[in-house]
Each structure stands twice: as C-alpha cells, then as structure tokens.
## 1
Amino acid sequence: MPYRYLDEIATADVAFEATGGNLEEVFTAAAEATLNVMVDEPERIERVMRVAVKLENTDRDMLLYDFLNELVYLKDARKLLLRVENMEIKEGAEGLSLVAELSGEELDPAKHPLGADVKAVTLHMFSLERADSGWKATAVLDI
C-alpha cells in the first residue's frame, strides 16, 4: 500500500504518509489516502465522469497541498468523488505545473458511505521530501 495513516500524529484530525517512486505516484497515493478518509468504500466509486485539473506552483510541496485541497473542494462544492486517472507534473523555469485527469461520480450517500468530513488539508507537519525509494509526503487532514 503506497500510504499509511499516522494515528500518533493527530488525535482530532487524520494524518497520513504517502510514498511513490516519482512525484506523480506520491501525489496519486496522497489523493487516494485523502479519498479513503472521505468515503468508507472508495472502490464503489464508478469512473463515469472525467474532470481535468491544472495547477501551478513554484514549490513541489505546495503543489501537492493545492492538489489535495482541490480534491476536497470538488467534493464539497461540486459533490464529486474523484480518483486520479492520469497525471503529469512538469518542472520549468517558472516553477511546476500539474495536469491531471480525474474520474469518478457524484456523491450519493446511499451508494457511498461517508467517512470523515475532510474540511481541508492543513500545513501542520505537511511535507514532501525525497526518500530512498523516491518521494514521501506527510499530511494532516482537518476533519
């Protein structure tokens, strides 16, 4: 499993650590960890609609922060439960850009048992760093 929850980090919130061999993999693992907090049975989410996300930031960690908060926003504002279909992160002279195709469906409480209500990704203990096997991210979700 490319992520694990860190019970010892946050008692009132949910903390997790995600790993991946490259940035796309660690961003995808972090997205899955976030989704699994919001929905008890994410495997029930059908990939019937697609949503494109484009983000830019000068820092890798803040790009991940923005991406995870975008997933929370899409759940709250548009009632969409989305998973990463594919993603590309490019580094350029101006910073980093992320282009992701997400797929999923509208939230239906009868079909998707809700987990914790994630309000936001916090900056508390938030990190993205190189690890022996690629990348490691740590995040705390405000619930």
## 2
Amino acid sequence: MDTQDARQQLEQMLREIDSSSAILEAEGAGTGTEISHVDQHPGDVAGEFTDADNQNALLENSAEQRAQVVEALARLDAGTYGTCVDCGQQIPDARLEVRPEAARCVADQEKFEAAGG
C-alpha cells in the first residue's frame, strides 16, 4: 500500500474517531446521570445502567482504536509501516487496505488475540 494513501486514510480515521468521541462526551456518555431526582422504577434505572455501560464501551473502543491509529502513524514516520511488529514480514496490501492501522499480519494477529491481547 502506498504510504501517502495510508497516511491519508489514517489521518481521516483519526479525525472521525475524535469527532465521534467528542460527540459522545458532549452528550454525557457513560455518566449515567439521572434526569430526575424522583425515584424511578427499577427497570428504568437498569436501563440507564445498560445505556451507561454501552456508552462507556463505545468510548473505550474509540480510545483503543485511536491508539492503534496513532501507533500506525508513528510506524509510517519511522519507516516500519506495513511490517508485522511480531514476525517482521510484510503485511499484505489487502489487509492494510481494509485495516490501515494493522500492526500484525493475520497469523500473528490471531495469536495475539488468542493470548488475550
């Protein structure tokens, strides 16, 4: 994959992640604050907790994806972009086109995830 194309894709991903995260945070994502101080039905409270959990998961996922994109941009700057961080082999262009932030080849990514990474 052309490094200039990769940089453009990664920078676009970073802008989209930052924008989405800012919107979620501006809407109070994950705070679980109640609108009313009047006791609510337990089902309503459970729904609020579920919503807060979902929002927190979205924010955590965004932060993790942002870190991966920033790391990929750092690999571009270092001249190591497209090289698997584990085995040192070239990551196929097809993988980088789908996941420009990928740090590992498919085989090493599977090992990484199986190990709990």
## 3
Amino acid sequence: MQKVGDGTRALHLFIDTMVVTIGAMLLFRWRNWYVMYWGYEHYNFGWFFFSSIFGYYFIAETLFAKTLGKLFTHSKVVTLNGKKPSISIIFWRSLLRLTIIDLFFGPFLGGPLHDFASKTTVVED
C-alpha cells in the first residue's frame, strides 16, 4: 500500500474542482432558467457549488472509492488498514471537505483534515 504524494493530491484537487465547478455551473444555469421564466426562488451560486462538492465526492467515493482525479492518477481511497471505507466514513469525509480549513492541516497532521478525521488515506491503485 503506497501512499500518494502531495503532487498527486494537488492534481486530484485540480481535476475534481474543475469537474465540480462545471457541474455546479450547469446546475446553476439550469435553475436560473426556471427562476427567470417560472418565477422560482433565486439561490446563490455557493449553494450549488458546495452541494456539488459534497454530492460528487460522496457518490464517487461510495461507489468506486475514487473520483475522476483519482481515476486519472490510478489512486483510490482506503481506510488505514487498507479496506474500502464504509458509507458513514465517506459521508464524514465528504462533509469535512466543505470546511475552509481542510487543506491547512497538511503540515500539522501529514495530510488534509478529511483524511485524518475519517481515518482514511489515498493510495496507489
């Protein structure tokens, strides 16, 4: 079980953020069509972006233990003992990604907060 490095983690973040941003923009524009023509209530883009982050990571890591960024770099999420994480662990991991301080724990904990708190890691596939 070989842990991936910080460069690989940065590539995951870049690829996954691009996918989430495009998805959130499409949902936002789709919803705004209904706002404009049917009088639905307007929501800020942040609601779409952060719910897309949570949904993307929760669904992808629950079903496949990897996201598109991890698929590109041949990596996957595992628990510290090398097994596939449970749904509750993935839920907690996805929820912690929404905190703004998540990435700042790297120098202190050896990785992001969502890895430390959920007792998971990202390894080569």
